[in-house]
Design a protein that fits this description.
Elements: E1 4-8, H1 19-33, E2 37-42, E3 55-58, E4 67-68, H2 71-77, H3 93-101, E5 113-114, H4 129-146, E6 151-155, H5 156-170, E7 173-178, H6 182-186, H7 192-204, E8 207-210, H8 213-223, E9 230-232, E10 254-259, H9 268-281, E11 285-290, H10 296-305, E12 312-316, H11 321-329, E13 332-335, H12 345-351, E14 356-359, E15 372-374, H13 379-391, H14 393-407, H15 412-427
Helix pairs in contact: 1-15, 4-5, 5-7, 9-13, 13-14
Amino acid sequence: MKPRVLMFGWEFPPHIAGGLGTACLGLTRGLAKQGVEVLFVMPKASGDEDQRSAKIINASDVEALYEFNTMDEYWNNINFLEIGSNLRPYMDPETFENEVNTSVRGEKEGQKISWKNKYQFSGKYGANLYEEVARYALVAATIAQQQEFDVIHAHDWLTYAAGIAAKKVSGKKLVVHVHATEFDRSGENVNSIVYNLERQGMMAADTVVTVSNLTRNIVINRYGIDPSKVVTVHNAVDFQSYSSMEVDRGVPEKIVTFLGRITFQKGPEYFIEAAAKVLKRFPNVRFVMAGSGDMMNSSIRRVAQLKIATKFHFTGFLRGANVQKMFAHSDVYVMPSVSEPFGISPLEAMRSGVPTIISKQSGVAEVLKHAIKVDYWDVDAMADAIYGLLAYPALAQFAGKNGLDEVNTLKWENAAFKLKGIYENLIG
């Protein structure tokens, strides 16, 4: 049996904002090797996506064949969306309140909306994100009517509404894939709109796939989802696009790297505090924070306060070959995440032979034996681990070699094999 999957995503390499797009590429490649055909829908395709493992459908090219005479009729037809508003991914409640007051609901009665025109999605995570999520769901319903497929697969909360719409139109089974939850992104200050959309997606799904047991527990305990339909499929690392790289270091010092969004979830402040402690004992080192995010400015200020700015570098967001180049420069990689559903970047670092330190509060800690694990908040333990890998070359060599051997066994084909089994069970 060769299932044909209608898959909804928000991003796909080479244009990505984080690990979600990387995981989607890895999974589609793995599924292609398993003989699974994937139709991958995204809001805005650029035309340079790798289509060898998935046929890309650009939602911006699709006419949504719906027409509504009033705003209320529109919202009633997509009643799984609680409210129409502009939503920034990590906005605070006060800002959100203001956005709601000027939202689409406030439009004049009797205004006619025609969906027979194409809608140009930005495909970004901008100010009108929630409006795009709603429109994406309408386009998804049209695509589900036009395409032949056996099962629906939706990645992360941005596409759950699209998955539900496709299920309502087609009657086909729905898999939702939880790469992160609102609790990972926002701690206990959850955005109730995002939480409700996540929960509706999980409730409507026939199977919920989580990227780790850590995330599976959150889905069951925080969202009230039946444990019997929640399955863990660990992420993996892509060796297909990897080639070892020689780089000119340019600096004599050792290099310790943080790579990820500079946001609460990723724990950048703990990396900075650990860096200051390490520099007191081992001055011959530079620290690099590669990424961007809402804590960028406060991180730069803290580095200046600690008087370590001459030894600390901010590169901005890196993608593609620049990520590999950064790992090739690195002597130690640190992922101090406060809450990490999985975490692909440590696998990428270990694939490059870089000794790696990860937080115990990460899903990837479930599958790695040869990464050093510390509590994200234990800055002393983090500093000790960094110092040990810098000061004792034999330890670093051992960690690098064994880490590389270990990630060699973590392949997307294995994750795809489990997914194919899930599809076949649902199709019956």
